Amino acid sequence: MFKQQISKFHTSAVEMARTTSRKGYRLSPHVKLRKPILPTIDNITVKEDHPLWEFFSNGKFVRTGQEIAYTGRPWSVQELRRKSFEDLHGLWYVCLKERNRLYREEHVYEQVGSMRSNEFDGLSEQIRATMWRIKQVLTERDSSLLRAKAEFKADGEKYLQEFREKYLQEEQVETDEWFDKLERIQYAIFGIPDVLDTNIKVDLTFLKGVKFIGELKFAKFAEAAGRSDLGELRDIAEIYTVFEESATVEGVQNACDKIDEYRLSEITIPGSKEIQVVQGFIDDKIQQAQSEFIEEAENEKIENKSI
Amino acid sequence: MSSLRDLSKRYGANVDRFPHYLRKMFEQMSKKSQLPALRPDARIVEESKRFTKPSQWKVQVGDRVLITRGKLSGTVTKVAALHEASNRIYLEQSETRRIIAPQAFWQPNQDSHVLEYPKTYHINDVKVVGTIVEEDGTERDIAADKLVFKGAYFDQDYNKMMPIRRIKYNEHIVIPWPKPEPVEDCEFSTPREVTEVRTHYTDSIVKLDTPEGYSVETFRNPTAKNWSKWNKRYLSKSDIKKLTPPEMPLSETKKAMLADKLKIKEQQITEMSPEVLEFIGGKVAQHLNSITDPNFKQFVDANDPARFIAKKAKKAEEKKALIENNKENYKLNEIRKRVEQKHKSKSVKKHGNKIW
């Protein structure tokens, strides 16, 4: 009875194999059993790029107190304010990884009852200060953006009107200074970058910017280009052609020639389809640029081969 | 386990939260439990009262000071270290106390358990020594009795703003701060040039340089019990005070309006004139005298104001008598005390210094 119980409940594989039952040996006595393999650290190999190595400093189990002695201080808010989002994001993860390492090592020392864990905690707190300051800076930026938007809603129109008047009154605007100013205002207020790329999505603000810049250029240069006979620009397609061209007399002349062709077709775009149309223009332009780039690249390849 | 450990840090007994008398008791208990060699010679100051500014310390490491208290008073030595936990300083040449160090704490080349350990000094027990140059070019040491800190400058060596240390009543004499030992960058520090590079410019009110789908709310806990201070559900009194702008000064028209209101208020009659009082009283008396209902008449008679007045006068008299009586009793008590005192002093003379 007792033996049966043992054979039932014993967990050790070897013992179970050796115990007798009514049917005799469960395992033949002629089978040689090898010695069990003891679990030692030498039997374990870990890949060098194993992600858990991030919790170890240079593959070390724990660092000594001297290795984590520091003379620096946390990043100040003033220093962090100068850094871009990408930098802050990177710094955050550097800090996080280091804190994870320190936290693991601190835990190891604490398990042994060593007072050294306090040193690790001290450095970890210093790094923590940097981390909350990063959050502080990002919060500041966000709230300042919200405030700027609210302020622009209140008296943005007045500011744009003033800029328009200044631009129209200025005698010579075909200078680098004024080109820069136009570029800056279109990015600052309407978010339209100088170079269009694939991830641009046209929205109402974008459209407003296109209209403002396009009409401004036309008002300034229509007379000088000798095209005051066109009257006012009729729809978004006409405005966009002016917006696309450079802020010079020649640019507006080119645009006016295109508008002449366009007016022959006698199409006018309704307000509801303005966004769609501008998005189409931009997508076409980008596609055109891409196909040109591919052609050029292929040509170069052929030339290289022929050489 | 690590989370449990953190919980104990947050909710566990924190001595700093106890009242001062309990804190003192715990300090003494912990002191008793320590080895005598490890006990500090001065009391540990609580963290909020520890010195943080150079103007509080008055000295820095490397300063020459004159000791004014203890066996070594009169000697000029240098500050070796600042003991931040007790707001006191270590000097290079100072009084020592003999401690019996356990072998685990032995320094290299130590061969005895007995060790001479330097004592700390209070800031008021030393005077800062400076040098002044005489007109003939000779240098002379002076010890500053009192110091005063006026003005500040950026110190390249300390890498921060430092107050200017002057001698009180002779503020033209400045004792410069000692030059600290240069600190080398550790493994964790970022090079100075990297920190100074500016990579962020705000150039648009439409978008920041953040990636798509980013929002500050992503690094806040949406299910947090305690809402952040940026987004409070309930505002406290102090919050409202901070958030409301100060009131603008009154305009001229408003001032005139308020003055007019005050004038009208002053013109209002607040007290009745005797004629009006007589008139109203006459009317009321006439009404009361013409009552025919016997029950109502009885009620009116019972509430006769003359009765209340007499009652009040009687009470006031009783109170006056009581106060006078108390005064007499007080005088009697004083006399009795004086007599007893005399008697006591006589007996003291008779029997020598006896404790009553």
Automatic annotation (TrEMBL), chain A:
InterPro entries: MRP-L47_sf, Ribosomal_uL29_mit
Pfam families in the cross-refs: MRP-L47
Keywords: Mitochondrion, Ribonucleoprotein, Ribosomal protein
Example GO biological process: mitochondrial translation
GO molecular function: structural constituent of ribosome
GO CC, one annotated term: mitochondrial large ribosomal subunit
Subcellular compartments: Mitochondrion
Family: Belongs to the universal ribosomal protein uL29 family.
Name of this protein: Large ribosomal subunit protein uL29m
Automatic annotation (TrEMBL), chain B:
Coiled-coil residues: 306-333
Keyword annotations of the record: Coiled coil
Gene3D superfamilies: 2.30.30.30
Record carries keyword Coiled coil: yes
InterPro entries: Rib_uL2_dom2, Translation_prot_SH3-like_sf
Keyword Coiled coil found: yes
Protein name, UniProt field: KOW domain-containing protein
Species the sequence originates in: [Candida] arabinofermentans NRRL YB-2248
Lineage, uppermost ranks: Eukaryota, Fungi, Dikarya, Ascomycota, Saccharomycotina
